[in-house]
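Section: protein folds

Sequence with per-residue C-alpha cells
===
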Amino acid sequence: MEIRAFFTVTELEEFGEPADILVIFDIFGASTMIAAALINGSQRVVPIAGADEAIKLGQILGRESVILCGEKNNLPIPDFDMINSPVEFDRMAITGKTVIYLSEEISRVIGLKAASPRILLGNFNNIIALAENTKEFKLVHLLCAGRGETLSFEDAVCAGMLVDLLTRNPHDEKGINDTAVTSRYLYGRHANDILGLLKESARGRKLLKQNRQRDLEYMAQIGRSDIIPQLAEDRTHFVRLL
C-alpha cells in the first residue's frame, strides 16, 4: 500500500495523479456533518459551494423535502435551517430528506482532475470503520481539507490516525510520503486527548465561546459510528458506503 497525504487542496491539485481512493478530512465541517446527517436518516447530502446556490437548489427540490445546513464564520446563514452542529441533527426531522450542505472546500475537491474516482469522508467518529474499508487499496490519498490554503491541525491529526491504523506492519512503512509520516507523528502526540486537541484548536476555541461544548465532545468520539459518506457515481451527492 502507498499512502500520500496532502495538507491543502492546492497540494493535491498540483500533484495531479489520482489514487485508487481519496479520503477527505474536515473535522469541523463536511466530514463530520455529512456523516452525522446520514446517521440521522438523510437519504443523501449534496455539497454546494455558495449559500445562494444552496437556497436555489432547495427551492427547486422543494423546500419541505430539504434541510439547508452550513454557516459562515461560525455564524448562522439567513434562510438556512441549521449551522455546523452535529448534535443539532438530533432535533431535526431529516429522515428521508436531502441535506444541502454548504462547503466550498468539498465542492472544489470534487471538481479536481486529481480527485479519485472513489471519495470517502473521514472523521474521528468513523475512523475505525474507515481503516477497514481502505486497507485493501494499493494507492490511498488523504486530504486535510482545512480552510483554503491553511492547514487545519485537527484534520492532520485525524489523517495521521488513519495512517497509524494502516501501517501497523513494518513493510507498510515503505509507501508513505513525508506528509503522511508527519500526520502520524502529530496523531501520536495527541492520541490520548483528542477532545483536548479540538478544544485548543482555533475553531474549537470559537465553539467553546459559543457554548458548543457538546459539538466538540461529539466530534472527539473515536469509533462511535461505522457510517462512512461516499461520493455517488454521478459525483453530485454523498450517500452511505454500503
About this structure: The first strand starts at residue 2 and ends at 6. The chain has ten helices and eleven strands. The first helix runs from residue 9 to 15. The chain has a mean pLDDT of 92.
